[in-house]
Specification:
Length: about 450
């Protein structure tokens, strides 16, 4: 057994990715539908008795978990060609089980549409999160303003609308923080409320716009999605609709970073460039060349890249979900870089793993990292402690000298579909190995 394996925090009995680094990538990578958007669209299907047909749905474990939750409530779920069809006519329950919801924080989105349609909802509080707390105070405060009575007991949020035939009331709501989850939850609830709801300091993320697009196709009256003020005029009922999920900007960004870290040329498609302006600006400032081509972007990375300063912010700022993969890139470039995480208080857990690979990183408190680029990272066993940290380990492994073993695939598979197969297709030497083979290779 190697010294690195002896000192590794990785459980060598886990399935892992094995990456032989320092391979140039070339070709085209296809971007799947956005996970964070698809989950909200699935929750919105509760608002109608008629079928909702969703195109471009990603094949991910989180999507499967949300489907199980909806089916447990009585939702019809089936595939129809390339469409995922959700039929809400048979919903009889308003209390998703803890065993299912504890696996998926996005399941709390259901409180809005369940309450709007049935006048009552009982949804377990989201469980703990490795990257930081994601409180639901803004969700509950907004629903209370719309006339719901909220109580919390034994880890379950119970909401009920008494009077007015169980219908929520539109009203002005100001969010203390532009939470994507709260914005989407309250926007869904407001579609069936009586009167007008105005959400101020709303989240402006593309996923909010995508949800509004589906809701409008279902008959909702929504103006201003994508801005800080969203107006929703409630209607009595919503109907069925067809909708295509937007491309996943985080997956697209991860692929662009993979090209940069391997100093390669890749075409990434489809990409909505406006969804990635902050990321593209950083890559170009570091020395990457990026040009639009067809529905996607071609990135070319030659020679040395420069360090930069990066600060995560709500959209249109730099996305927190790309901070960890981008830090893996910054560890390999010339000069100093500064990373400040402002969205989640515990989202620098990947720093320790990058340092094990030879990265020079100093953390100042819990949310600031100072990096001094090194000529080369070294392949060692590492683990991703959350979804984006796992992606960062893959990025680092692509650039490292030697072999990198990446554990924590249960996190990676929540946000990336068959990532190793897609990277193989453009030249990466990467493969998934099962637990038995992992133990043998480490011996």
């Amino acid at each position: 057994m190697t010294l690195a394996a002896l000192n590794s925090p990785v459980d060598l009995n886990q399935s892992q990715l094995l990456i032989v680094g320092r391979q140039r990538l070339e070709g085209e990578l296809q971007v799947n539908g956005a996970k964070n958007s698809a989950l909200a669209l699935m929750a919105a299907s509760v608002l109608s008795r008629e079928p909702i047909r969703l195109q471009n749905m990603p094949d991910l474990t989180d999507i499967g978990t949300m489907a199980k939750i909806l089916v447990s409530l009585g939702m019809g779920f089936h595939l129809e060609g390339s469409s995922t069809v959700l039929s809400g006519g048979g919903i009889t329950r308003h209390d998703p089980s803890y065993d299912l919801t504890r696996r998926l924080r996005a399941s709390f989105f259901l409180i809005g549409p369940l309450l709007a349609r049935h006048g009552v909802a009982k949804v377990p509080l989201p469980g703990g999160c490795r990257i930081g707390s994601r409180p639901v105070h803004e969700h509950n405060k907004g629903l209370e303003a719309m006339g719901a009575r909220i109580s919390i007991a034994s880890g379950v949020v119970s909401a009920e609308v008494r009077g007015n035939q169980g219908r929520l009331q539109g009203c002005p709501i100001h969010l203390d923080y532009p939470s994507v989850g709260a914005t989407e939850t309250l926007m869904m609830a407001a579609t069936l409320a009586e009167g007008e709801t105005v959400l101020r300091n709303a989240a402006q993320e593309p996923e909010v716009e995508d949800l509004a697009g589906l809701l409008k196709a279902m008959g909702a009256r929504i103006r201003g999605a994508g801005s800080s003020t969203i107006q929703i005029s409630g209607v009595k009922e919503l109907h069925g609709a067809d909708h295509a999920v937007i491309p996943d900007r985080i997956e697209a960004g991860t692929f662009l970073i993979a090209a940069a870290v391997t100093r390669s040329r890749l075409h990434v498609t489809p990409v909505e460039s406006s969804h990635l302006n902050a990321v593209l600006a950083k890559l170009e400032a570091m020395g990457c060349s990026i040009s639009p081509q067809g529905q996607g972007l071609t990135i070319t990375t030659l020679g040395q890249l420069r360090g930069c300063e990066l600060r995560t912010q709500p959209f249109p700022g730099f996305p927190t979900d790309l901070q960890a993969p981008f830090m893996a890139l910054l560890a390999t470039v010339q000069g100093d870089s500064f990373v400040t995480e402002t969205v989640f208080e515990n989202r620098l857990q990947h720093v320790a793993e990058l340092k094990r690979m030879g990265a020079q990183i100093h953390t100042n408190g819990t949310n600031v990292a100072i990096l001094k680029g090194v000529p080369m990272l070294s392949g060692v066993p590492v683990a991703g402690t959350d979804l984006r940290a796992a992606a960062a380990m893959v990025i680092a492994g692509l650039a490292a000298d030697g072999v990198t073993h990446v554990a924590g695939l249960e996190h990676l598979d929540r946000g990336y579909t068959r990532l190793e197969e897609r990277l193989q297709a453009v030249g990466a030497r990467i493969s998934r190995i099962d637990a038995t083979r992992t133990a043998l290779l480490a011996a």
